[in-house]
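Quick one:
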Amino acid sequence: MLKTFKADLHIHTCLSPCGDLKMTPQKIINQVLENNLDIIAICDHNTAENVPALINAAKDKNVVVLPGMEICTREEIHVLALFENLELVFEMQAKVYEKLHGKNNPDVFGLQVIGNEFDEVLGFNDKLLIGAVDLSVEEIVNRVHKLGGLAIASHIDRESYSVISQLGFIPNSLEFDALEISPSISCEDARKKFPVYQNYTFIQNSDAHFLNDIGKASTSLLLAEATFDEIKKALKDEDKRKIQNPKSKI
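Output:
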């Protein structure tokens, strides 16, 4: 039997340099439960080091946490990379770290806090997570797919760090699994604004960097269960799994 699940697949933690320091695992999960979300994805900038803490914090909470990253490509295009398990997301992280240069300056970009499921600080990431990875958007999308992941174009309606803002269009060679729109536009208006991309699946997420933003936008999915494989089917509109309602609170 299929049922509806409410998902926010783009949430940052205190590990992202632009993420609020209150974006800790316990506080995030509490906010997720308050907003009746069933599925979330943790997508910090160019890293997945806080994903295990979120997965552990969500145990027995009836919330599914997908491992993910928001990768900034050489062209400064943001791409959401979602994976089935920790092994795969950390394999992607290893490649990203190999091509990510520079060190963080906390006074300029903010602290990059690594924590555990009890909101205890384990350390700080000193990589320049706010920077761009020396890989093209096509290389990123292809590598994500090689690992069985989902590659989603981040916030295509934004005037910076989106594939459209950086390239002017979405090349046919880029096989995105979906296009994400930000909370600042409705799905209907997004489809009117980007009529040439009607064949793509549109989803909407909060891109939350602050607790109050979690669930500000979400997507309803018709699935048999809250799993990565079911979400993949929904994005492809397979076996009656589908995207039902990308929605923002605007």
